[in-house]
# Entry
Amino acid sequence: MNRSKLTRGLLLVSLMALTACAGVNPKIYEGSQPPLVLEQYFLGQTRAWGMFQDRSGELKRSFEVDINGRMVNGELVMTEDFVYNDGEKSQRIWRIKRLDANHYEGRADDVIGVAKGVVHGRALNWTYTLALPVGEQTYHVQFDDWMYLQPDGVLLNRARMSKFGIELGQVTLSFRKLP
# Structure
């Protein structure tokens, strides 16, 4: 193989790798219905059912989450109470602020720095780093979290969890407003 073909081949592989990492642009959902407004959807009581699958697709853990959302000083405060299938319980309290028509930022005690959210139409993309305790250690893992509001009020959520760019697994949730 001549040097020119090898160089073009390497460039093509590099370009494919870069575009694969680029992900979906949330703007493609602009105008999609119904529009997702976090501070409306999560106000009051919501329940979620979820699972974690490792990168091979094997179900490792399932859980239920009861969520209580309220507005405090212009921020959505969401208290999430988790119960896992092995009996473990945990709680996360999100403080979410709308920055403009399409951007949110969120904070929680186990989130490193600030979670960034971009919403367009029915879809929201959250990106953040979570301090995840596993046994005696805590790992900082990245989440690329997508939420999609359905016409019947169900909110579907899929998150890719990674470390150093290597996918560790996926979290899938389904949310439903409670009366």
Remarks:
- The domain at 29-177 is CATH 2.40.128.20 (Lipocalin).
- Confidence is low (pLDDT under 50) at residues 9-20.
- The chain has one domain: 29-177.
- The helical segments are 3-22, 38-41.
